[in-house]
Amino acid sequence: MGTTIEAIYDDIGGFSVAQCIIISFIFYNFLGASWSMIQMAFAVKVPDWTCVANEFGDLQQLGTEFYSNVTQVYSNGSEFSEKCSVNGSVCINYEFSGAKTTIVNEWNLVCDYEWIPSVVISVQMGGVLVGAALSGQTSERWGRRKSIAVVTVWHICSNVLAVFSNSYQMFMACRFLIGIGIGGTYTISFPYAMEFLPLKSRGRVAILPFWTLGVAIFVCVAYFIPHWRYLHLGCAIFCLPGVTLWFFVPESVRWLTVNGRLDEAMAALARMACWNGKPLPPDARSTLEAIYSSRKTCSNAAKQYSFIDLFRGRYFLKCTLIMCFMWITLSLISYGISFGVHGLAGNLYLNIVLTNCVEIPGLLPVLWLMDRAGFGRKCATVVTFSIICITTVVVLIINIQDHGDNDRAVFWFAMITKLCIDNVWNVIQAWVSELYPTVTRALGYSIATTSARVGGMLAPFLVDLKKRVVLTYLIISSLSLGVVLLCMLLPETRLCVLKDSIGFSSAAANCEEGVVETIIVGTNDEDDDEDDAHERNGWRKQNGAEKSEEKTVLDPAV
């Protein structure tokens, strides 16, 4: 019989049919958000273009001091390949080649307007920031299910509105609205899914490549329909089935429990048990009542938590500040490479696929690291960011020495860095969800993703593998080293039961001090590997238990 929600999940089948259905519906919306985010890598692509001058003088005469970087004039005087000005004259008529229709050739965003695509990306990331901040608060107050349904409808409507953009200013505003939908989806989906999972399944689900699958779907569509308007419409249509989540996925059992809605929590558990073909354990109600009573004992049950609570107390302050820095670094590096993929040598579609699917070979090693006894979330983070730091320094040296093959070095640097950064992002998503209790989990994940959008807004300007290579390497190596050092200060959460409320129990101590609350439950699990068994035996000796399985509970101080 279970004394925690994780134990109840084990009693009704563990990771089985119910979890598969719930995870599939929740992360389907994640696929649409991934499509919507990465399509800006296509939308800002600059096609090959030519300045066209005819006998009527389609060149506007301007001062030569402003256009001092003029390099070449064609002898026939009729065409200037990607030259903004010639001998003091600025081009005002452009001809673009290729079948792709991006916002660049839609509104002639070259020369004086070449800065606009980067600003559009930053505005979108600003929208993601707003969406992440708002959805964290709404999902704590109104629930995960209702919030993600509203966000999904918002995301669909914003994409449809973008189709009718008649200027880059309107498109920029639409991308801000789309960003709100993306940020909300990212922020709600992961904690929502994690709260349905048994203890041992959290790490495995965390590394599932939903982002990669969403990108792959986008690339397949973009290859056959290379038009930014139709891609926005396609994204809206693709996201429509996500609205059905409202009818099939129950509200988070944890959220219902800590908010005192025990009848609804029992109904959700009964539905999951039915899907799994298992009976609901007879003590399930008493377990939920005990969890709710514990929350009332530890804190004010009627309290509505806010972002301010994430900075109260030494434990929360430390976790929040370090996680914010880590997520800024993740976003700056990952989106800097993803949105700058058009600057890499080679085919655009292939590069988008490679830079976003390269994480797949690293999934199993990262899973092994984050779930292996003696390693965990912290070790996986240190190893991957150390690889990024070392790779950056090596490629920086190659570029400084200039061996004449810098394009290839930059390409492989991008591949290795994306492999590491995308995989460690999966680890840190699980980590941040496990550091906070249920009453502030969505807020904690929200402030992390909000911080990531700050990195995403800066990425188009700071990470440039074509024009500012050396500065890019210095930024990435410095930030990666900072993450390696700071993450050592965070507690390990491997095999930790998710905490539901804020406060201490008499048997609990601060997790950051290395002492943990222990919950004793009977077990006959013969499938545990020897390392896990050895680790639990050490906990038994420490806490005086002899014939039981122990699960660690994070109990942060306030």
Automatic annotation (TrEMBL):
InterPro entries: MFS_dom, MFS_sugar_transport-like, MFS_trans_sf, Sugar_transporter_CS. GO terms for molecular function: transmembrane transporter activity. The chain crosses the membrane at residues 12-31, 170-193, 205-225, 231-249, 315-337, 349-370, 382-400, 470-491. Residues 533-558 have a biased composition (Basic and acidic residues). Keywords: Membrane, Transmembrane, Transmembrane helix. GO terms for cellular component: membrane. Residues 523-558 are annotated as: Disordered. Residues 61-494 form the Major facilitator superfamily (MFS) profile domain. It is a multi-pass membrane protein. It comes from the Eukaryota. It is found in: Membrane. Its main location: membrane. PROSITE patterns: MFS, SUGAR_TRANSPORT_1, SUGAR_TRANSPORT_2. PANTHER family: SOLUTE CARRIER FAMILY 22 MEMBER. This is Major facilitator superfamily (MFS) profile domain-containing protein. It comes from Plakobranchus ocellatus. The lineage of its organism: Eukaryota, Metazoa, Spiralia, Lophotrochozoa, Mollusca.
